[in-house]
Amino acid sequence: xxxxxxxxxxxxxxxxxxxxxxxxxxxxxxxxxxxxxxxxxxxxxxxxxxxxxxxxxxxxxxxxxxxxxxxxxxxxxxxxxxxxxxxxxxxxxxxxxxxxxxxxxxxxxxxxxxxxxxxxxxxxxxxxxxxxxxxxxxxxxxxxxxxxxxxxxxxxxxxxxxxxxxxxxxxxxxxxxxxxxxxxxxxxxxxxxxxxxxxxxxxxxxxxxxxxxxxxxxxxxxxxxxxxxxxxxxxxxxxxxxxxxxxxxxxxxxxxxxxxxxxxxxxxxxxxxxxxxxxxxxxxxxxxxxxxxxxxxxxxxxxxxxxxxxxxxxxxxxxxxxxxxxxxxxxxxxxxxxxxxxxxxxxxxxxxxxxxxxxxxxxxxxxxxxxxxxxxxxxxxxxxxxxxxxxxxxxxxxxxxxxxxxxxxxxxxxxxxxxxxxxxxxxxxxxxxxxxxxxxxxxxxxxxxxxxxxxxxxxxxxxxxxxxxxxxxxxxxxxxxxxxxxxxxxxxxxxxxxxxxxxxxxxxxxxxxxxxxxxxxxxxxxxxxxxxxxxxxxxxxxxxxxxxxxxxxxxxxxxxxxxxxxxxxxxxxxxxxxxxxxxxxxxxxxxxxxxxxxxxxxxxxxxxxxxxxxxxxxxxxxxxxxxxxxxxxxxxxxxxxxxxxxxxxxxxxxxxxxxxxxxxxxxxxxxxxxxxxxxxxxxxxxxxxxxxxxxxxxxxxxxxxxxxxxxxxxxxxxxxxxxxxxxxxxxxxxxxxxxxxxxxxxxxxxxxxxxxxxxxxxxxxxxxxxxxxxxxxxxxxxxxxxxxxxxxxxxxxxxxxxxxxxxxxxxxxxxxxxxxxxxxxxxxxxxxxxxxxxxxxxxxxxxxxxxxxxxxxxxxxxxxxxxxxxxxxxxxxxxxxxxxxxxxxxxxxxxxxxxxxxxxxxxxxxxxxxxxxxxxxxxxxxxxxxxxxxx
Length: 935
Fold this sequence. Notes:
Distance between the termini: 50 Å
CATH superfamily of the largest domain: Tetratricopeptide repeat domain
Mean pLDDT: 87
Number of helices: 47
Number of strands: 10
Helix content: 55-70%
Structural class: mainly alpha
Strand order of the largest sheet: 2-3-4-1-5
């Protein structure tokens, strides 16, 4: 009532989603203002429009357990008749035995990714309306899921609808609102009803228009519909309303109704219940906004048939109502009032009893954990046993909740209790998994002290300590701790191999390369004799990195392939497996095996996303963009991965590589503002870093921006330090930018720098002996001596290896060199080919640079200016986008496309967003229509 405009908005959203255009909507309002009633009215036609409608309600109890409301709303259950839902439920409930080295990834993020994949597949079947009420109780993992679903709604037939109470300072709601608005969604605020609507509502309820005194009484409701209804019901229960001259009026002489708040009228309704019904409902209030009758009967200790009349009475007076195969409180305030009416001691005892009953009845660990979390720390022992027995399983499903339970349990136990060591060790694993390296270090050191006489526990503690110190970048301390560990007597051989394998990595980080290789070889030998995959994988990984440092890529690749074979399928080695997959495709790139490298990168990205290892996934995205997409000239694909890796810390090695490539692409594409922004960020990082990792990338980005700004001299100043023997730049990285330094130096007649660059290119044995190094040396020599034949010889390598971007640069230099010698006929085709490459790259500024360089010698391209790459329409789509568009047109979901093309689901989602923007359409259905028209 009084919500006509809001109802129209919701019905329009239903019509849009039925036509294939999704969006996100939020309904905001105080308790009782009519949010649920509005959703019921506005979305009533969704099923008739061909939509599947799903519904969930958040609550304070479920807030503490990740994704509980979303799993229930989406019907993710192992008993589901939908195999996709059942498979998702099985995957989410599976438990990984977490060793002291940590589990595969973040289980919560892995669960989020699985649910997003399910939503994608459900919307591929047809339009979906997902309603989630009371978002102010949304858990943090579900906020991340909500963000992903909002993105999905911009390209899929998904209508995502939520409701919430406005609560000051609640960050979850602020995040939800922000992402809805950022993705083009809508927030609908519900205001109090005007007096005319209150009068109409009262007339409908009472069957007569309210009189003057009753109307005055209804002002207490302040336009809140629930308050109006509850106030009228309270007055009728008190027999305080009667008909006078056809109007409903307060009865003269009736007992005064001193109810002045919504909470008051709710309490009045509950007081009307019998004591038996109220006692049963108090127990039900512990179980959440909705509950199973079977669970309730078990907890109160009464057979279901005996309980049915009691619940029917609660339904009759409007306290609970049927909901799916369960019952639920008609309004959250009813449950809240019952809940808060229980003394704290009584409530705690009931929680303990309920948890015990449900556990004995075979309830899931999540369900029991929800109740155990509400038991105070003065435990009686049963829940401590339960935590100790279920901590490993719970770790995989919710490490944050597990950490809270373990810390609480440890505060209640004496160190002499046999359970203490088990719980303390598991807390160390959870801390490591959550990235709390300092806590993991502290717990590992405590465990070392308490593990005397227990060699197995001592080894686990040393392993956790070494890993934590390494993750915090404290390689010297890690080396000291691991060296002390392996020199202590009595270590089991398998653990000795693991610890030495880890120690070899710390030795390499301290540049003790010879000792590092010897230690790794000994560790590998011991691990192989004890058939321990963990020791073998870490030792092989260390050896592979030793060989790469020595520029022996073939040997490094052989080691990493062996390590991948050992670690495949081991959940406890998944993070190392991902790291080595990244190393492998980088090695393949350096070996000019780009098709294999591309395939390897896709596999690594898909695996990292599937297991929820988000930090490693972001690192791999940056790695793939920088070593595969950028040199191959797939700059739009590179930008997609760099955009998705926005959470990489700016000061980390991958963060620096990310900013550098964003700056390089922006400079070549003449986006001065973006290039300057990224260079400024790199300058801040460089100023604050004691030792900069990928030095070459920072200098290359700054040099490109300097040249674009008309200051080639500054570009030379940026790149010249790379010639120093003690430069931090790796050999291969330095070689890649020596031609640019030589070109810039010759352009400003800095012959000393130009000769030095050529000397470095020709004298670095580890680099110049490779095909890429030989091409760089030839290129630099040709620039210095003005021998275009040499530069063309280098171009042959880049054409053959598929390094398209670098091919454009070398062709430009060859064309300029031929033109400088007066060979204009030889210069023109090379310039035309370079301009074609630049056009495909969108490198507007680089085109201008090439034309300006050749114009000095009287050479102009055969066509005026640059062949502008279209920004809209089919011609604007990249090869990757065209392939994805074809599969979208066939009705494939994003995760299915990702599986087919060996991409991550998120990468496909981003490509689909770009496709819709370039084609100027708003739904996947329109992609299918356009593909059909082009056929």
